[in-house]
Prior knowledge:
Blueprint: E1 10-25, E2 28-40, E3 43-47, H1 54-61, E4 69-74, E5 77-78, H2 84-91, E6 94-97, H3 109-120, H4 126-139, H5 155-167, E7 173-177, H6 185-202, E8 205-210, H7 213-219, E9 222-227, E10 230-235, H8 237-241, H9 246-257
Parallel strand pairs: 3-8, 3-9, 6-7, 7-8
Antiparallel strand pairs: 1-2, 1-4, 4-5, 9-10
Helix pairs in contact: 3-4, 3-5, 5-6, 6-7
Amino acid sequence: xxxxxxxxxxxxxxxxxxxxxxxxxxxxxxxxxxxxxxxxxxxxxxxxxxxxxxxxxxxxxxxxxxxxxxxxxxxxxxxxxxxxxxxxxxxxxxxxxxxxxxxxxxxxxxxxxxxxxxxxxxxxxxxxxxxxxxxxxxxxxxxxxxxxxxxxxxxxxxxxxxxxxxxxxxxxxxxxxxxxxxxxxxxxxxxxxxxxxxxxxxxxxxxxxxxxxxxxxxxxxxxxxxxxxxxxxxxxxxxxxxxxxxxxxxxxxxxxxx
Length: 258
């Protein structure tokens, strides 16, 4: 896609590498043999209907869930073999944009962004924190909302602030869980543009969990279609959907009918 600078993707380096991943919850087999990689500087959209295991996948990448079997290597670390201290250190390099935005309702926008800095980066002066918060808010286009409370923001603004709060720690990897869910088309388009801007400006590698085809096409360099616990097909948007596979065609039609 022409909005991407292809040279920023380093296909010689995988920041996420998953081999033979299985995950079940009692009798429910969610992931049944996943092989997956994300290259440095690449945005990969994981597509699938609700309940197909998309969110389970990124929770395993972030170390929030343990796999039953398989290798999960993130930034060179075997995630499921890390102790809690090592896992916390790895997560400083991973930004997790939750579907709910996960802001602290009792803190204003400025305090929401300052909090992860004061918790994770030692010996920062008030001036350094102030500069970082303002620069990050400016990057997401909401510098003027600095003193507002989350309850006073629109859904799209809360989503942007949630992304800003993860960006303030300068993560190498961004994990987006349904970034356009519940948003109107205009606001969704703004969030999609922001995801592309984050990739280019912060040189992040991203996994974008979505069932929104417009989001997937706009934000990703590559798509992976998750069905029945496995990736049915991966490639560019056109490569994935130029298919005679009935499940893929059904997903495409379902998305637009909905």
